[in-house]
Amino acid sequence: MVCMTLMGCSPEYNWRVTAVADGSVTAIFPDKPEVAQRSLDFSGHSIQFFLTAAHVDDAVFAVGYAPWPDEWAHDDQARHDLAKAIIRSLYQNLGVAPPNVLPALGKRFTVEGKSQKGAARLEAKVWLLPHGLVEGLVTAPVRAYPKPEADEFFGSLGAAR
């Protein structure tokens, strides 16, 4: 089904299955993804954050992954606090105040705001694994948001087999 759907996409999209999040999640990316790594300071901890992303025109398709620090092995509160902070940052990055009630973990949500290039839309989903946090996101200018391709991308996010 996915193959038949993908064949109908624009030639600009060269879909490929990629393992992310230390191999525990798979995603289909619309072009060859690149991986960047940086350190996030959160609640007195340095957390490694890996972003696997592919760009097509002005759209970015990405999966972020942050493995838990060893001391968070059994700290559900710290894990949820990080997830909430990540969700809030997605709103703030587009100049939008986060809502009082944040989207539930594992649920896709949309943010519309402004980027350096103008009006922008971001769709994201943030969830927790036993060993880390994962976020999937697609962002693009509102006028060129690739909704069918974003649906394919989000539909592909799942546990690696």
Write a short abstract of this structure.
The chain has 161 residues and is an alpha+beta fold. 20% of the residues lie in helices and 44% in strands.
Fold and architecture overview:
It is built from 3 helices and 9 strands; from the N terminus they run H-E-E-E-E-E-H-E-E-E-H-E. It is 20% helix and 44% strand. The protein has a single domain (2-159), classed as 3-Layer(aba) Sandwich (Protein Transport Mog1p, Chain A). The chain has helices at residues 2-7, 76-92, 147-156; strands spanning 16-20, 25-29, 34-42, 45-56, 59-67, 109-115, 118-129, 132-141, 158-159. With 161 residues, it is α+β, with helices and mostly antiparallel strands. It has a 6-stranded antiparallel beta sheet, with helices on both faces. It is globular, with a radius of gyration of 16 Å.
Fold blueprint:
Blueprint: H1 2-7, E1 16-20, E2 25-29, E3 34-42, E4 45-56, E5 59-67, H2 76-92, E6 109-115, E7 118-129, E8 132-141, H3 147-156, E9 158-159
Antiparallel strand pairs: 1-2, 2-9, 3-4, 4-5, 5-8, 6-7, 7-8
- Report the order of strands and helices: HEEEEEHEEEHE
Provide a count of the helices: 3
The helicity comes to 10-25%
How many domain regions?
Answer: 1
Beta-strand content bin: 35-45%
**Largest sheet, strands/sense/barrel:** 6 strands, antiparallel
Strand order of the largest sheet: 3-4-5-8-7-6
CATH architecture: 3-Layer(aba) Sandwich
Average pLDDT over all residues: 92
Shape field: globular
Assigned CATH class: Alpha Beta
Care to count the β-strands? 9
> What would you report as the Rg, rounded to the nearest angstrom?
16 Å
The separation of the N and C termini measures 18 Å
Question: What are the low-pLDDT stretches, counting only 5+ consecutive residues below 50?
Answer: 1-9
- Decide which structural class fits the backbone: alpha+beta
In CATH, the topology is named: Protein Transport Mog1p, Chain A
